[in-house]
Design a protein that fits this description.
- The complex is a heterotrimer of chains A (267), B (257) and C (296).
- Chain A is mainly alpha-helical and 267 residues long.
- Chain A has one domain (63-266): MetI-like (MetI-like fold, Orthogonal Bundle).
- Chain A has helices at residues 19-38, 44-51, 63-66, 69-100, 109-124, 127-138, 142-166, 171-178, 183-190, 192-214, 225-234, 238-266.
- Chain A is extended.
- The termini of chain A are far apart.
- By secondary structure, chain B is α/β, with parallel strands linked by helices.
- Chain B has a domain at 2-80 and 164-250: P-loop containing nucleotide triphosphate hydrolases (Rossmann fold), CATH 3.40.50.
- Chain B has a six-stranded mixed sheet with strand order 6-7-8-3-9-10, sandwiched between helices.
- In chain B, helix 5 packs across helix 6 and helix 6 runs parallel beside helix 7 (178-195).
- The model of chain C is unreliable at 275-283 and 288-296 (pLDDT under 50).
- The two termini of chain C are 47 Å apart.
- In chain C, helix 4 runs antiparallel to helix 9 (188-222), helix 5 packs across helix 7 and helix 8 packs across helix 9.
- Chain C is mainly alpha-helical and 296 residues long.
- Classes of the chains: A mainly alpha (267), B alpha/beta (257), C mainly alpha (296).
- Chains A and C meet through helix 1, helix 2, helix 4, helix 5 and helix 6 of A and helix 1, helix 2, helix 4, helix 5 and helix 6 of C.
Amino acid sequence: MTQPVGEVGQRPTKPRPKLTVVLGLVAAVVFTLYSAQQVDMRVSTFVDMWTNPLWEKFWPIEWDWVLDRSHVIDPLIETFQIGIISAVIGCSLALPVSFAMSRLTAPNRGVYYVTKAVMNVVRAVPDLFWAKLLVTAVGVGAFAGAWALSIFSLAVMVKLFSEEVDSADPRPLEAAKAAGGRHLPSVATGVLPTVFPAYVAYSLYVLELNIRASLVLGLVGAGGIGRVIEAQRGAFQFDRILGILVIIFAVVFILEQISVALRRRLV
Amino acid sequence: MIRFENVSVTYRGGVKALRNLDLTIEDGEFVVVVGLSGAGKSTLLRALNGLVPATEGSITIDGTEVVGASAATLREVRSNIGMIFQTFNLVERTTVINNVLMGRLSAVPAWRSTLGLWPATAREEAMLALERVGIVDKAYVRASNLSGGQQQRVGIARALAQKPSVMLADEPVAALDPVTSRQVMGDLQRINQQLGITTIINLHYLDLAQEYGRRLIGLRDGLLVFDGLIDDVTPDTFTSIYGREIAASDVLADDEP
Amino acid sequence: MTDTTSTEPDTSTQRPARPVAPRVWKWAISAVILVAATWSITGLDVSIDRLTSAPGDAWNILKRMWPPAFAEEIDRGVIGKVLESVYIAWIGTVIGAVISLPLSFLAASNVSPVWIRLPMRQLFNAIRAVPELIVAMIILAVTGLGPWAGALAIGIHSVGTLGKLSSEAVESIDAGPIEAVEAAGGRWISSMRWAVFPQVLPTVVSYWLFRFEINVRASAVLGMIGAGGVGSELVSQLNFRNFPEVGAVLFVTVVAVVSIDTLSAMVRRRIIQGGTGGEGSRNDEALADLTGISLR
């Protein structure tokens, strides 16, 4: 009954877990505990929050004020305008810059490394830092916001699209060059057609990203609906803020539906 | 004893996979089921352990009704039935022993297994099962690092770890090469003989069926068209089960012993 | 056609007409973009004057950041503030990971029934729709200032994004092992723990790390509205127009962000290779990295 059917082997002893894994886990736990202490983590916050009388200020929503055109709708339109123009500028500039930042199509190594370094730095600065910087540079308002998002989305788009160019088939480019083409026309005819659909898809994506980002630009004075939220927060008008949130909610939801539908069309 | 009485399975969409099947299998039998793909072989096995609900009729295992059984009864029934799959159905990202322990899930309280606190007896059963199929030395190797034949043996060990009274094998060798196929079939045959586990195997290859089977069941379009001993099988039997001439792809051939 | 040795152009076949549809599309799309861009510019109150002077102004500020006032900023504790941003991001990520992991199973179509799956999905979508900055603003208003408010806001938002990504990971698993657990008489919880969890773990952990990278940026931003971390320092120095100090703050932030990105990418690569490897293209990774939204 206990006779084995296959060849008999020795039972192995359970191997010890890998040292790197153990150290990694220990480090993660220690870091979590330390961070929790550093951010002053307290469970009592939830009780405080729950029992806070301030919540009453959120309800009922002051719809009369929220639905007034000049209060929310106009700033919301401004939000869209910031998102759209920054996506158009960012994505247009991203086309040449991405070709400069791909190993496949960069005219030379110097250009490649310089572009890559600059773009990495630009991307490492959060979008709202850019907004605050440009508010300081060119003054409060939507203009600064559009600037900031153009810069930030350029860097995002370049990262996405240059990797697409990297993975493009190099043979058409070789063929174009073999036929005696100069660098730029060769890239335009040999690489661009392959990667253009991806360019369109990522552009749509950046558009969605920028509209989402432009919702909060106003919190640092860079225009759009965030400006209204900031003002109402200062006045403790949370009933209005909740109303604005409902609208933002609807906008983001519709935006995502459109963008999903469009992407499905494209792919 | 396993008993199918007037069993029909109709899938959503109206496909009839089994039609009015009557079948009795005694304890300890070694049954091979053949038929074209889509003839209902897979459905037959899955109806038996309730993975596919029968739409009509009665299926009993040692007197317990499967059709329309509660979730708890189904778990109870299934804990007694080991199943082996064409695609092995192993979790490749984890170790062999963890895969085999899955066979003990029904015998261990859910909270213990979920936390990974397997009782020592469960680990022992898993090791014994691995020893039976001769790959205990791979216990702590990731399943993805094994060959196809070794993976199927882990699948068998997982089923054995349940200490089942019935073993179902759904095309267990379809993904394996001829040599490994025969090894796996040999394993199943010996398990049947040594442990007395009732074994039902779906096969596509006719020569394998004849080589290892004792009782042969033929299905065609969901109907039982043959039920008899392998010794009574003639080439005409297969032609009638398949409804066409036997093709080269229906036999495994290669280095037959 | 008939004479294969001739190189004379064969004029017997009619040349096809240049197709019209693609060109129409091209023009239509270009027109839409142009109209949208023009409409947007009109709303931004730009004069030619502002447009031309803006690059100069920006450049001017950039120049005044050089050389960065590192000594002053280190005295003001900029390193500690950047680290505080990192702690906030980490705690936020941990909260998001711990809560989203079980929920993502409940939101996956292959392992959960419709009545629980749909509410879960809507919950994730709802959370994702509200920018974390606004969540933080509300929590701050209700609880008072502090990094814990920022960590909570990031945690809540991460539940939404991680939940969505992880449930997609669950949906893309091999269903075979689930069937095996069912066939062995195991319960739902057992198939989740032993058939699904080991399959998704590497992917999900790498999502947690992506999210941490994004959250470091997010928590730096949260500081701008008073939720702790480096953002507040940037705002106050910019408000006083102390540009050399601003330069130093930016420099330290960039160094922190880039090194965390690099480190995390390294760990992620090892984790995924430890899995089956090669899953997901580099761009999917980049996308999730930037936003927590997957293209698929």
